[in-house]
Amino acid sequence: MVIHYDPWWNISTENQATDRAYRIGQKNNVQVYKLITKNSIEEKIYDIQERKAKLANNMLDTKTTFINKLSKDEIMNLFNV
Asked: pTM score, two decimals?
């Protein structure tokens, strides 16, 4: 069981902690809980985490029109290559 009660600004940190419970060879079910107090800084952090995750998923999704509209040269310019 994993309980997150103090959220980090970076969701990857929490995901890493959760992933440790799903280690190789784990045969038991893993339950993950996030305890968020309403109208608190934790709730604001959670909202930011959700927005960042949604933005990252939209940017990396191949169905997103933004990335499909870029030419190869525009993509290369993003990486200054």
From this structure: 0.61
